[in-house]
């Protein structure tokens, strides 16, 4: 699965040259023209990184950032701004911004900042789980060595999606749409998701009966919780 980036700016010229530039780098892109649409796409698309214009229509970028951080989501956020006030930038970082770039900007600088802020392609958790996104592999540290886990392509996609949203509960319908590319409105499809979660626990959890990493979130769905 490619990493998804959400860019929100009310200037169509910004969107028209940033979106294709990101797509040429291999990212999937969701675009919004105001804060309300940005929040909707954040909730439904679960991007790996957001690029937010501070001065877009209400809610502005600062308010969107506050809402995201209040939810507990640690997703990286880069601000686009024409403001050069130190107090504005300080406030943005206080809210939880990861970085900023001033307009006008060189697209190469934005691409470099996006790459620097995205989760690394190889990640380790608790010296037990290692996931290599480019190679689409998962390994477990057992018996003092790293052992590859035999995952199906769909199991890897599901696990990778949950890891990219570590600590954040993801709804069942959202997982079905994002990973399985199905609408998620039938019981049989929900059972398909449950079977994949069960299989992942059997293959990854130290004790599948007492999961530590792949957790149920009552009334919502599932989440990957780093120990």
Q: How would you summarize the topology of this molecule?
A:
Layout: E1 4-8, H1 12-24, E2 28-32, H2 35-45, E3 49-53, H3 61-70, E4 77-81, H4 86-95, E5 99-102, H5 107-117, E6 122-125, E7 129-132, E8 137-142, E9 145-148, H6 153-164, E10 170-171, H7 172-180, H8 187-204, E11 214-217, E12 221-224
Parallel strand pairs: 1-2, 1-3, 3-4, 4-5
Antiparallel strand pairs: 6-7, 7-8, 8-9, 10-12, 11-12
Helix pairs in contact: 2-3, 6-7, 6-8
Give structural notes.
By secondary structure, the protein is an alpha/beta fold. It folds into 2 domains: 4-117, Response regulator (Rossmann fold); 122-224, Arc Repressor Mutant, subunit A (Orthogonal Bundle), CATH 1.10.10. It has helices at residues 12-24, 35-45, 61-70, 86-95, 107-117, 153-164, 172-180, 187-204, and strands spanning 4-8, 28-32, 49-53, 77-81, 99-102, 122-125, 129-132, 137-142, 145-148, 170-171, 214-217, 221-224.
Short descriptors:
227 residues; Rossmann fold; 5-stranded parallel β-sheet; 4-stranded antiparallel β-sheet; 12 strands; 23% strand; elongated
């Amino acid at each position: 699965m490619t990493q998804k980036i959400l860019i929100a700016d009310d200037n169509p010229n910004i969107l028209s040259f940033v979106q294709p530039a990101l797509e040429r780098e291999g990212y999937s892109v969701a675009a919004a023209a105001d804060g309300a649409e940005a929040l909707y796409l954040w909730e439904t698309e679960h991007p790996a990184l957001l690029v937010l214009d501070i001065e877009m229509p209400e809610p502005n970028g600062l308010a969107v950032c506050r809402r995201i951080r209040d939810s507990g989501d640690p997703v990286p956020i880069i601000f686009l701004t024409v403001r050069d006030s130190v107090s504005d930038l300080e406030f943005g970082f206080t809210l939880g911004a990861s970085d900023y770039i001033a307009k006008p900007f060189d697209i190469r600088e934005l691409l470099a900042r996006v790459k620097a802020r995205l989760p690394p392609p190889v990640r380790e958790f608790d010296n037990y789980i290692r996931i290599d996104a480019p190679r689409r592999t998962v390994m477990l540290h057992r018996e003092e060595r790293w052992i590859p886990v035999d995952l199906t392509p769909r199991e890897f996609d599901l696990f990778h999606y949950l890891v990219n949203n570590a600590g954040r509960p993801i709804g069942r319908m959202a997982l079905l749409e994002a990973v399985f590319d199905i609408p998620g409105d039938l019981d049989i499809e929900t059972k398909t998701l449950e079977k994949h979660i069960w299989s992942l626990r059997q293959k990854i959890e130290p004790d599948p009966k007492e999961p530590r990493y792949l957790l149920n979130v009552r009334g919502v769905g599932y989440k990957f919780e780093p120990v």
